[in-house]
């Protein structure tokens, strides 16, 4: 349902997408992960015809994004990073407007709007102007608008940003329901547990190209072993504890000074954990928490990209987004 082959996209001298290749089978969810500036939003804008590729072949629901953009738009639903709702209209009126734009008649539009308002827990505010909604409520209304016409392909660009935990779970349930009914979903997210929960396959992109892909378990297996997490009681013990764990594991651990957490791969599992606790106690390093766990997608992300998933964009990345926005507006 989505095929991207040899996709390139430049903004001046900056190459945002560099021989990108993706494929999503019907009825599956592809999680697209990557650090800020990796090319996720550029990819979404090409798939939704907001940006034109410089070269490469891109098809969505069998339609070429350059040769037949109108058919692509009729086949997709989109929820972007920011809620796109008309704040002067009520929640009900927003959804009816979207349904009418898709060509549905008044009766069908109203019925579909009421169905989605109920599904997204917005029925009690259906008659209120969207401008009075909370950020999370606007986000849910925007997502509802993306699936009004039951599109073949739904593209969700960080759909749960700004939602509370209940809203996020509700959104996950809706996405799962969509896939259960045969809809194909491309999901970009920086919440790695979201990709772990929802995605059939995951593609990690960096510098505009895919650097790893597979199921969540396949990607986690790349880390290879279990991991030890140690939380020290005192910040001044971090350096000493890190050196002890480095000596045991024969590799540099990851240290988070804010949470006073040290994490390191543990090929010998619980034997290494027991040894670590013994040596930390001998060194008079007080430990608040100690755990042996399987690798997470966050570990995979950090190993592949060198940074955590949730980071702030740099000035260069902000300039890139401005260039993307300008070209999208011109398109």
TrEMBL record:
Annotated ranges, domain ABC transporter: 2-232
Comp. bias regions, Polar residues: 308-317
Region of interest (Disordered), ranges: 308-331
Sections of the chain in a coiled coil: none
Membrane-related topology note: Peripheral membrane protein
GO MF entry, a single one: ATP binding
Location, primary (coarse class): membrane
Assigned protein family: Belongs to the ABC transporter superfamily. Drug exporter-1 (DrugE1) (TC 3.A.1.105) family.
Name of protein: ATP-binding cassette domain-containing protein
Subcellular location: Cell membrane
UniProt KW Metal-binding keyword: no
Keyword ATP-binding: yes
Signal peptide: none
InterPro entries according to UniProt: AAA+_ATPase, ABC_transporter-like_ATP-bd, ABC_transporter-like_CS, ABC_transporter_ATP-binding, DrrA, P-loop_NTPase
SMART domains listed in its UniProt record: AAA
Keywords: Antibiotic resistance, ATP-binding, Cell membrane, Membrane, Nucleotide-binding, Translocase, Transport
Taxonomic lineage from the root: Bacteria, Bacillati, Actinomycetota, Actinomycetes, Micrococcales
């Amino acid at each position: 349902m989505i095929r991207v082959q040899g996709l390139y996209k430049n903004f001046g001298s900056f190459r945002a997408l560099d021989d990108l290749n993706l494929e999503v089978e019907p009825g599956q969810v592809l999680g697209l992960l990557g650090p800020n500036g990796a090319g996720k939003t550029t990819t979404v804008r090409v798939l939704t015809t907001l940006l034109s590729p410089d070269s490469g072949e891109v098809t969505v629901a069998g339609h070429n994004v350059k040769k037949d953009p109108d058919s692509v738009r009729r086949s997709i639903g989109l929820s972007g990073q920011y809620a796109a709702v008309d704040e002067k209209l009520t929640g009900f009126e927003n959804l009816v407007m979207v349904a009418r734009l898709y060509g549905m008649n008044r009766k069908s539009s109203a019925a579909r709007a009421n169905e989605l308002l109920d599904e997204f827990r917005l029925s009690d505010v259906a008659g209120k102007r969207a401008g009075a909604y909370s950020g999370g409520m606007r986000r849910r209304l925007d997502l509802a608008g993306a699936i009004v016409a039951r599109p073949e392909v739904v593209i969700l660009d960080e759909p749960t940003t700004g939602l509370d935990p209940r809203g996020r779970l509700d959104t996950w349930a809706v996405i799962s329901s969509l896939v259960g009914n045969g809809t194909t979903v491309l999901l970009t997210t920086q919440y790695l547990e979201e990709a772990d929960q929802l995605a059939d396959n995951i593609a990690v992109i960096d510098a505009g190209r895919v650097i790893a892909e597979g199921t969540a378990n396949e990607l986690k297996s790349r880390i290879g072993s279990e991991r030890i997490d140690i939380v020290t009681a005192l910040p001044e013990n971090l350096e000493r504890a890190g050196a002890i764990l480095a000596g045991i594991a024969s590799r540099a651990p990851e240290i988070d000074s804010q949470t006073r957490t040290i994490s390191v791969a543990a090929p010998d599992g619980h034997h290494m954990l027991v040894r670590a606790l013994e040596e930390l106690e001998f060194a008079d390093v007080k430990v608040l928490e100690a755990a042996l766990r399987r690798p997470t997608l966050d570990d995979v992300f950090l190993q592949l990209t060198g940074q955590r998933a949730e980071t702030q964009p740099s000035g260069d990345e902000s300039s890139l987004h401005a260039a993307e926005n300008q070209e999208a507006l011109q398109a």
